[in-house]
Amino acid sequence: MATTYLPTLKQLQYLVALRDAGHFGRAAEACFVTQSTLSAGIRELETLIGVTLVERTRRVVRFTPLGEKIVDKARRVLREADELGDIARSAGRPLSGEMRMSVIPTIAPFLLPRILPRLRKDYPDLKLFLREETSAHACESLHHGRSDCVLLALPYACGDVETEILFDDRLFVAFPEGELEPPMPDAVEPEAIDEGRLLLLEDGHCLKDHALAACNRPELRAESTMLGTSLYTMVQMVENGLGVTMLPEMAVTAGILDNTHVTARPLHAENAARQIALVWRKASPRERDFRLLAEVLGAKP
């Protein structure tokens, strides 16, 4: 009987790492092996299946069309292999073992400092590895198996996922102190926002889309100046009189305006909030863990 040789998980890991990094050296670093070890592993894989997966030149690593298909299949195989361990962990203690969570930048610095101490205290056996990524990259990491779950803001199309809503996070308008005539309004109407002075995060941050949708003013999308890569940058620009911006309530509550001369008031409009949610891949064997984690993340202090 002929012997059938199957690709190893290590070979598939090398292939996926090379596709993600686009460079043999960086892929080897990601896999904690030497470049020669990674290159040899991929050549063994090509010899095993009898096809060329990667075209190698001095400057460029280019995957063949068949190589791209093999990479997609390899991602699924590796993800399912990871889930074998998840099945065993799910039968043990809740929220234990390793868990990789992606978090978007407009949530991570404001929610996690409050939540992480509680997680460490109540679930000491949980090893939580965090990745801060924009929504698009976070959802890609989820579906490629680099992350187990994602903490993000809805609405956002993250693909075919399970979702647990944690809470609503209202939007606030931030402006320099003294800009509005007293008495200070309890809330700001969208019509009161000067489209020529609105400062928003650059493309890739879903908060920008949530803010524009809440205002329901198409001209804001055309006129607003996209400048900052972080909410902290936006606050500094507002303090220096360059305009007004939108902030989520969790950032205001966490003290982003402390020691500044910036004031914030809620935006008075329909849908003037984003929904904070935890999402994970459908049919994950760790669904119980994710729902328990959602309870912890959504709990009031």
UniProtKB/TrEMBL annotation:
Key words of the record: DNA-binding, Transcription, Transcription regulation
Stretches assigned to the HTH lysR-type domain: 7-64
Listed Pfam families: HTH_1 (PF00126), LysR_substrate (PF03466)
GO terms under cellular component: protein-DNA complex
Keyword Transcription: yes
GO molecular function: DNA binding; DNA-binding transcription factor activity
PANTHER family cross-referenced by the UniProt entry: TRANSCRIPTIONAL DUAL REGULATOR HCAR-RELATED, TRANSCRIPTIONAL REGULATOR OF OXIDATIVE STRESS OXYR
Annotated family: Belongs to the LysR transcriptional regulatory family.
Protein's recorded name: LysR family transcriptional regulator
